[in-house]
Structures are given as C-alpha cells and as structure tokens.
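Hi, here's the filled form for the chain we discussed.

Project: internal
Contact: R.S.
Residues: 233
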Amino acid sequence: MANARRPYVICHMGPTVDGRITGISAAKSLTAAYERTAQTFDADGWVIGRISMEPYAGKANVPRTSNQKIPRTDFVANANAMSYAIAIDPSGKLRWTTNALDADHVITVLTQRVSNAYLAFLRAKQISYLFAGKTRIDLKSALGKLRTKVGIRRLLLEGGGRINGSFLEEGLIDELSILIAPLANGSNGTPTLFDTGRRTSHGTKLRLTAVKRLENDIVWLRYRVQSLPHRRG
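And the returned structure, exactly as it came back:
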C-alpha cells in the first residue's frame, strides 16, 4: 500500500515461535540473520519506542530548567543523512549522548508538552526533533513529517509490542517481516509482537508473500497487509 504522504512501513521483527519478542538473547544466530535481512529492504531509517531506544541513547545530563522560550516547531539538524534512527519519545526522556547511531542521524518524535530545557538540550546536541501531537503522539502526523521533512520513503518498524500494536491499530503497517527463532518462551506477561492493550480485536488480514528457511532453523516469513483493523466507533 504505497502512500505518497508517508513512508512505506515494514514491521521487521524476530520473535520466538510463540510470538514473544523478549527472552531470545540465546539465539545469537538470529541477530546476525535479522541484520542481514533488514539490509535487503534498503530502508531510509528505522523507528522504535523510548524504552527500546534507551540502551542506545546513553545517559547524558539533561538540564531541568531553561531561560529560553523555544517555539514548538520542528527542528531538522540534518535533512540529507543517508539514514535515520527515529525514537518515539512523547515527553522527552531520552538522555542522548550523540546525534548519530553509527551512521544514522537521530530524530526524536515529541509531543508539545516537552520542556523548553529538553528542546534546548536537543538543539545543543544537533539532534533533530519533530512534533506530532499536543499531549499524545499522533503516529500518522509523525509519519507524514518523516516523509516531507527528511524524505523518508521506506521505514523499518522495529519496536516493542506497544509501539508495533499502535502502528497496527492505526493501519500504518504495509508489510510484516518476521524471522521466527527456533525457541519457545511461554512466559506469562512476556511482551509479544503486537500488543494493543485491548482485550478484543477483530484483527488485521495479511497475505503471505514469501517463506524462506534460513540457517540455524530460522524461518523468514513476509506478509502484505490486506485490510485495516476495524476501529470502534
């Protein structure tokens, strides 16, 4: 479902056979296969949530106050990067130590409730930020800005269950790519591939487009999204 107003979104994940996305650290071969297959998509960037991004962001000291009154307008420090690392961070909690992860320029997606001190911190670090909502993230708006502000056409969604679930609920996933690890977790409460937080769901119809067996008993499945979830009125 190509869309000129937003990037084409591929949810690329490596769950266990029972759909868990944690507890698979023992499958070292999965990490290598995951990275190799991700490169085949030739994406312009990747996006995850705040919690997933924390280990990559670092622990810089962030000022608590600022004398500056910074307007809630988008700030793009690098519109010509080869690729982008994007964090969904509604209230501005990530403590970035750098504006690039490897060669990927950092973009953080915020709401307008973020503090002036945090915006000043991001500007000083030359970290790009985009606003997408007043108090809650509007994912459709965020994707639109990623397309128009920095030219992202193809985006990998590699988040936790809640972020992935939010994209799915909003009908913002075009393709699903999953590498099934030859492991079973079975733990109650362990995060799954998609977690919308709702007890009932009508589901999203998918069409299988490819099946490939990789080394170490990993199976790579690819689907196209056929229909959007039914939203409650």
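Let me know if anything looks off before we file it.
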